[in-house]
Structure formats: structure tokens, C-alpha cells
Design goal:
Length: 857
């Protein structure tokens, strides 16, 4: 239980392990998660350490597993995760794992290459099929009839269309050339055209047309048609949209130019026969090959799926095993080898209470390895600052995280987390007090707590959800405390509960109440004299004129009261630190003046509030009636500035109790006198102690050698309390103490005022709730009849969305941040330094969790 209020006591130990038992022992320590190893080879390059080859082998295995995981996720195959953590494999099992991963990777890569080649072939055949279909449409279009001229160019090297040699197909020539082209052909000449056909990405087609027109100066004829169905890119599996094109041209020069343009735009060209019969024959062959390819592709995909399903069953366990092996060898690289090369030496921080548990784990590791030499764990003496280790469970972990976010506690410093478990949700609830809103928050937190096992197993990468789920116990407590303060404020969705009946009654008749808009109830005649049993009297809900005034006065005062008590508690916490570390100077000349300063000024102001509440009342006669009640703020200002109070009203007294003036003067003088004590006492005493220490270590007459004098000097300066202070310059000590004193004195004023945020946010939350009720829900409640039911349903849904979104989420987040600030700045600044470093043990659980999170990112 002591570790809850302070961090665990840590010990620096030296560990001796036999080489053959080192792997098994480190594996057992990784499962235990209670040892933080130090690097004994800080100057050695990572690539020059003893086990660097094993780490590289693990990296290679991880790479292969990541490749398998990527392929499995690509196919949407679920990976089996039993939640169990297999033990770290023995070193000899690494060879079997490497062989398994190598076989799987090679088989999968071969299947993928074959599948990609088949898909590429399938794509080419599909594109050729569309080319043959679309070009046939181009050639079959109806056109006017023209006559062909014969000439001496019939034996040209260019490809010629059949229609150019067949009188029955002269209409196709006219369609391709157009009327102007036909008229341009001279008698005695046979016009010869070449053409190319292919496919191109649809988005590149406009630029492709412009380039053809400009580069060929309009001497080409382009026809294109879209392929309706998207095609699959074999390299990445994306769906792409393409178009078929055919380009007609005349001459070798244009042919070369067209092909270069097609190559530049990454268009794929395919051979297209000139004769319709050849095109039909080729299309039939293409369709047959496509059907065969579909069959082969299906078989290939089935084989790939079977391989991936088999791998998915063991992938999670393989990842865990490889990461454990890698972590073990990475840790072994931190060790030193002795001269005989047979023993590994390590240094580690361990919790003092767990040394026996660690020794048992080392024995288990030795037995597993079959070594006959037991490991040796020796505790070492050190002057280094140990790491800070606070044991937590699933309940306290979130509260400890709030403290560590400010700064990790110094070693054995008082831990604010156990006190924050109560103060944090309570101060939040003071700002968020509403029974309805608190119930929503508490139910949400309770749902996450009840379903925490299932929700934790989902392991989502949604950062916002992970934050909510990690703080489920904080959310639940904040909701419960908000319900309590909501009952105190008697506030539920801006309305009140009349549980016990109001202790006020009306002395007016019905006609007076109905005819007058504003009426005032007198505490002397209309109040029963006994307060409402629990919380606010519901009568204040209908007091539209002075409801806010009453709530303001109440919430402002309780904010100051809670704030001053919270700060005093923080100062008292510093007393525990000073006494534990035996810092007598800080105890006498920091803690006591700070506490006196806070008590005599601000706690006295709190006492004045209680005196005012007790002595003055509307039912009392003068001088203790409500008219004679002084302002606490004015009284406090007059007290600090030594001002003479203004004359009170007739039959009223200037002071609230006898001797108040003299007590206030004494309190201010003593509080001001504490300031120079906080400022100068500690530095002067340190300076005097150093002076005395220097006089004691002067060379002694008759010393036989300088070595003896040096030895006495070392012994005299060793082991005093506050060794770090002695290393600091006196000027720095004076400056540090001045800053600390000024910060405390001014901070006492500003921090007290800072707690007024409790009042401000509480008021804002209540007013927002009332605005939503008045301007949204009340509109639906005023509707009547069947239409009114429909309107009320819609209005209620809108009101519920605004309530949850604005008042619970946004206002809740605002109150959470303000509460966090009150703890970090106003509370923890009184005693908490937060200058330590966290204990980071070698733990397989943490390594696997971090590795999984990194893989998801």
C-alpha cells in the first residue's frame, strides 16, 4: 500500500549469467516485466554488438511476416487471435521458423507473379477483344457510294484495305476519307492508307487527340469509342477506364510519328487484321483464350487463398514469437562479456520488494536451459537517481497517467494520484453539477466498465475512442460525483426536484399572485425556519429575478472555500516530502512559513465566510440582521491594506467579532514577516554550512602527506544531506529561492482567484441547460393534440442531441481541462517537482503491444 503514496523502492543490481543460460533467463525476466536493464556498451555501435546477426535475422523474419500480413489483409481474410501469448521459442527453433517463413514467402511470391502474368495476359486479350469489336463497328457504318480509281501504286509496301481493291466496298473508303478525301484522289492513282489500333486511358484521350492534331498537322484521322466496363490493372488491382482508338494515316513519316505519340501517352497498340473475316476469326480465338485464362486464374486464386488462410491461423502467434526473440537478443546486446567469454554481466534496476520473485524467475530460466551454474544477482551501492515506479491497476492507471502527463515524480516523492482519485472528479462535479447530465456520463462510463473485456479485445486504432476507454473509471466517477453535486444544486436538466417539499410558503392570496408579475417572499414570515433537508430548496427554481444572484453568492464562496482547502492540503503534502528526505532546512524555513502565510490570510478569509453565515441572518435583529452583514471581499482588502473600514449603517457594528481589528493586523504582520524567512533563511543557512565544512577540511598540522589530507577531505564532504545542493553555486541558490518565494506569494493570490473558475463554469453550465430547455424543449411541450405529439418527438430528439453534444461532451471536456489545470498548477505546484524518469522494465507485454500499435500505423 505504501507504493501507492510513494514510488517503489528500487535497487541497482548486478546480474551474472552463463552464456548458455542467458537467453532462457532473459526470456523469463521478459515474461515477468519487473527489470529495467542498463546499457553497459553505450560507446559500441549497434552493428558491432555480439548478437547483431540474430537481431538482423529477426528483422528479416518480421519483414516476411509483414508481407504475409499485407497479403492476408488485401484478401480480407480474418486472422485468428486467441489472446494467448506463446512463450519465446528456443534459439534452435529460429531455424525452423526461418524455413517456414521463407517457404511461405517464396510460394506466395511465385503465386502472385503467376497471377500477375495471367492478369496481364487477360487484360491484353480483353483489350484486343474490345478493339476487334469497336473497329468492326467503325468499318460497318453506312456511308455514300464512291468509285475507286486504279493506278500504278497497287504494289505498295503500305498495308491496304480490302475495300480499296474491291468495288463492292468502296463505301468504306468514303467513310474513312470523307468526301474531300475522295475528291482529292486523282485519276490513275490508288489511294493507300495505313492504320494503327489500340487502347488508352480515358483521361488521357483529349490530350492525345490534341497532340496528334498538332504533331501531324491534321493529316491523320482518329476514331475512338469508350470501353463501358472498367478494366483491372494487374500491377495494383485498381479499376481503370479506357477507350479504344484507331488512327488512319498515309506514309511512313506519319506512321513513325503516330507510334511515338502513342508510346509517349502509354497507349497500348494491338494488331488488327484488315479483312472482316480475319477480324472475326481472331475475335473467336481471343474469346476462347479468355475463357481458358478465366479458368486458370480461378485455380490460381483458390491456391493463393488456401495458402493465406493457412498462414492467417498462425500469423499472430508468429509475430509474438519473433518479437520476443528479437527483444531478448536486443536486451542481450546491452550486456557485457567477462574476460573468459563464458559469462554475461548485466546491470539492472529492480523493485526491492520483487527481488525474490526475480531470483525465482532466473532459477526457472537456468533449469530450462539445462545449465548447472546458477545465476548471481548482487545488489550494488549507487548514488544515481533510481527510476520512478508506481504500481497501478486498471482503476488507478488512468489517474496515474494524468499525473505523469505533468511530469514523472522524482524518486520516492509523494504521489498525488491516490488523492486525485477523489479530488479530481469532485472538482469536476462542482463545475458540471447536474443530476441528468451526470447520469448520462456515469451510465456511459459504467457501460464501458461492464463491457471492458470485449471492448479491450477489439483493439481499435481510433484514438478518440481509446482515450475514452482508457479513462472509463474517471468518466464513471465524474458522472457519479456530478449526480451528487446536481442533487446539492437541486438541478436536473435545468429543473428542480421537489422531494421533501419546499420550506417556503406563500402568504399572498390567489388574486394577488395572478395579478402581480413580481412578488417577494420575506424570510421572516414566509420561511419555516428550517432549511431544506438536502441541497437547494426547489423554490429557487421559480425565483426568476434573484435566482442567479443567490446561486452566484453561494457558488462563488464554496469555490474559494474548496480552493483554499485544496491549496493547504498541497502545502501539507510538502511536509511529508521534507520529513521523508530529512530536509530539515526546507521543513523549518519553507514549509512552516508557507503554511502560516496561507492560513493567516486566505484561510482566515474562509473563516470570515463561515462567521458571516452563522451570525448574520434575515430573521435576526440588528446588529446581526442581513442589512448589517459586511462584504468579505471589502473586509479582506481593508485588512491587507490596513484601511479603516467605512462606518456601518445605523445600529450595525463595524466588526463581526470582538478584537477583529487587532487580530487582522497581527495576521498581516506575521504573514508579511514570513516572506523574508522564505526568501533568505535557506540560502543563508546553506552558505553558513558550506563555510563550516570548508573550515573542517583545511590541512591539519602534522599531516604526513597530501594523500591523508585528501582522504579526510573526501570523507568530510561525502554523505551529507543535500549533496546536489552543494554542487550548486550560491548565487544560483539565492536566485532560485527568490523565484520560488515570489512565485509562492503571488501564486497564493492568483491561485485563490483561479479557483473561481469552479463558480464560473458551474454558472455557465446551468445557464446553457436552462437556455436549451426554454428555447427548445419547452416549445414542444406547449403543443397540443396529435400534431403536438409529432412536434414534441422531433423537438425532443433535437434537444437530446444538443444536450449530449454541447452540455455533456463539450462542456464536460471544458470542465475536465479546467480541473486538470487546477490539479497541475494550483495543487501540485505546492509540493510536486516531477523531475524523475519512469521505470521502463523489459516486458514482453509492452513490447508486443507497442509493436502491434506501430504495425497498425
Amino acid at each position: 500500500m505504501g507504493s501507492l503514496f510513494r514510488s517503489e523502492e528500487m535497487a541497482l543490481c548486478q546480474l551474472f549469467l552463463q552464456s548458455e543460460a542467458a537467453y532462457a533467463c532473459v526470456s523469463e525476466l521478459g515474461e515477468l516485466g519487473l527489470v529495467q536493464f542498463r546499457d553497459l556498451n553505450p560507446d559500441v555501435n549497434a552493428f558491432q554488438r555480439k548478437f547483431v546477426n540474430e537481431v538482423r535475422r529477426c528483422d528479416e523474419m518480421e519483414r516476411k511476416l509483414r508481407y504475409l500480413e499485407k497479403e492476408i489483409k488485401k484478401d480480407g481474410i480474418p486472422m485468428l487471435d486467441t489472446g494467448d501469448s506463446p512463450e519465446a521459442p528456443q534459439p534452435r527453433e529460429m531455424i525452423d521458423l526461418e524455413a517456414t517463413f521463407e517457404k511461405l514467402e517464396n510460394e506466395l511470391r511465385e503465386v502472385n507473379q503467376n497471377a500477375e502474368a495471367l492478369k496481364r495476359n487477360f487484360l491484353e486479350l480483353t483489350e484486343l477483344k474490345h478493339i476487334l469489336r469497336k473497329t468492326q463497328v467503325f468499318f460497318d457504318e453506312s456511308v455514300p457510294t464512291v468509285y475507286k480509281s486504279s493506278g500504278a501504286y497497287s504494289s505498295s509496301k503500305y498495308r491496304r484495305y480490302p475495300q480499296m481493291a474491291d468495288n463492292q466496298n468502296e463505301d468504306e473508303q468514303a467513310q474513312l476519307l470523307g468526301e474531300e478525301g475522295v475528291r482529292a484522289s486523282q485519276p490513275g492513282q490508288n489511294l493507300k492508307l495505313g492504320f494503327v489500333a489500340g487502347v488508352i486511358l480515358r483521361e488521357r484521350l483529349p490530350a492525345f487527340e490534341r497532340m496528334l492534331w498538332r504533331a501531324c498537322r491534321g493529316n491523320v484521322f482518329l476514331r475512338q469509342a469508350m470501353i463501358e466496363t472498367p478494366l483491372e490493372d494487374p500491377t495494383n488491382g485498381d479499376q481503370v477506364h479506357k477507350s479504344v482508338f484507331i488512327i488512319f494515316f498515309q506514309g511512313d513519316q506519319l506512321k513513325t510519328r503516330v507510334k511515338k505519340i502513342c508510346e509517349g501517352f502509354r497507349a497500348t497498340l494491338y494488331p488488327c487484321p484488315e479483312a472482316p473475316a480475319d477480324r472475326r476469326e481472331m475475335a473467336m480465338g481471343v474469346m476462347t483464350r479468355i475463357e481458358d485464362l478465366n479458368t486458370v486464374l480461378g485455380q490460381t486464386q483458390d491456391h493463393r487463398h488456401r495458402v493465406l488462410v493457412a498462414a492467417a491461423k498462425n500469423l499472430k502467434n508468429w509475430f509474438v514469437k519473433v518479437r520476443k526473440i528479437k527483444a531478448i537478443y536486443h536486451t542481450l546486446n546491452l550486456f557485457n562479456l567477462d574476460v573468459t567469454q563464458k559469462c554475461l554481466i548485466a546491470e539492472c534496476w529492480v523493485p526491492l520488494l520483487d527481488i525474490e520473485t526475480i531470483q525465482l524467475a532466473l532459477r526457472r530460466g537456468t533449469e530450462r536451459s539445462g545449465s548447472s551454474v546458477p545465476p548471481i544477482l548482487n545488489r550494488m551501492q549507487t548514488f544515481e537517481n533510481p527510476p520512478t515506479y508506481n504500481r497501478t491497476n486498471k482503476f488507478t492507471k488512468a489517474f496515474q497517467a494524468l499525473i505523469d502527463a505533468y511530469g514523472v515524480a522524482s524518486y520516492r516523492e509523494m504521489n498525488p494520484a491516490p488523492y486525485t482519485i477523489i479530488t479530481f472528479p469532485f472538482l469536476f462535479a462542482v463545475m458540471f453539477g447536474d443530476l441528468g447530465h451526470g447520469a448520462i456520463m456515469a451510465l456511459f462510463g459504467l457501460w464501458m466498465i461492464r463491457k471492458e473485456k470485449g471492448l479491450a479485445a477489439q483493439k481499435t486504432d481510433n484514438e478518440i475512442w481509446n482515450i475514452f476507454f482508457g479513462g472509463r473509471y474517471i468518466i464513471f466517477l465524474m458522472g457519479v460525483f456530478s449526480m451528487y453535486t446536481g442533487l446539492i444544486y437541486n438541478d436536473i436538466f435545468s429543473k428542480s426536484l421537489n422531494i421533501f417539499g419546499s420550506h417556503w410558503h406563500l402568504s399572498y392570496n390567489k388574486s394577488t399572485v395572478m395579478e402581480n408579475k413580481f412578488l417577494q417572499l420575506s424570510p421572516k414570515g414566509d420561511y419555516e425556519g428550517a432549511p431544506y433537508p438536502f441541497g437547494m430548496d426547489p423554490i429557487w427554481q421559480v425565483a426568476g429575478a434573484n435566482k442567479i444572484i443567490f446561486h452566484n453568492a453561494y457558488k462563488m464562496k464554496i469555490s474559494i472555500i474548496f480552493g483554499v482547502i485544496h491549496m493547504i492540503f498541497g502545502v501539507v503534502m510538502s511536509w511529508h516530502n521534507h520529513t521523508y528526505f530529512r530536509n530539515r532546512i526546507s521543513l523549518l524555513y519553507e514549509f512552516i512559513p508557507q503554511l502560516i502565510f496561507l492560513l493567516l490570510l486566505f484561510f482566515y478569509m474562509v473563516l470570515l465566510m463561515f462567521i458571516k453565515w452563522i451570525k448574520f441572518a434575515a430573521t435576526n435583529d440588528k446588529p446581526y440582521s442581513e442589512a448589517c452583514a459586511p462584504s468579505i471581499l471589502i473586509t479582506f482588502i481593508d485588512m491587507v491594506l490596513f484601511n479603516t473600514p467605512k462606518p456601518p449603517p445605523e445600529r450595525c457594528e463595524t466588526y463581526m467579532f470582538f478584537g477583529q481589528h487587532y487580530i487582522q493586523v497581527l495576521f498581516v504582520l506575521v504573514a508579511v514577516g514570513c516572506i523574508p524567512v522564505m526568501l533568505l533563511a535557506k540560502p543563508l543557512l546553506i552558505m553558513q554550512a558550506r563555510k563550516q565544512a570548508n573550515e573542517e577540511v583545511q590541512p591539519i598540522a602534522g599531516a604526513t602527506s597530501d594523500a591523508e589530507a585528501g582522504g579526510m577531505s573526501n570523507g568530510g564532504s561525502h554523505g551529507g544531506a543535500g549533496g546536489h545542493e552543494e554542487e550548486e553555486e550560491l548565487s544560483e541558490i539565492f536566485i532560485h529561492q527568490s523565484i520560488h518565494t515570489i512565485e509562492y506569494v503571488l501564486g497564493s493570490v492568483s491561485h485563490t482567484a483561479s479557483y473561481l473558475r469552479l463558480w464560473a463554469l458551474s454558472l455557465a453550465h446551468a445557464q446553457l441547460a436552462e437556455v436549451l430547455w426554454t428555447m427548445v424543449l419547452s416549445i414542444g411541450l406547449k403543443q397540443e393534440g396529435p400534431v403536438g405529439g409529432i412536434v414534441l418527438t422531433c423537438v425532443f430528439a433535437f434537444w437530446a442531441i444538443l444536450t449530449v453534444g454541447i452540455l455533456v461532451l463539450m462542456e464536460g471536456l471544458s470542465a475536465f481541462l479546467h480541473t486538470l489545470r487546477l490539479h497541475w498548477v494550483e495543487f501540485q505546484s505546492k509540493f510536486y517537482k516531477g523531475q524523475g524518469y519512469a521505470f521502463q522494465p523489459f516486458s514482453f507485454d509492452a513490447i508486443i503491444e507497442n509493436g502491434a500499435a506501430a504495425a497498425e500505423e
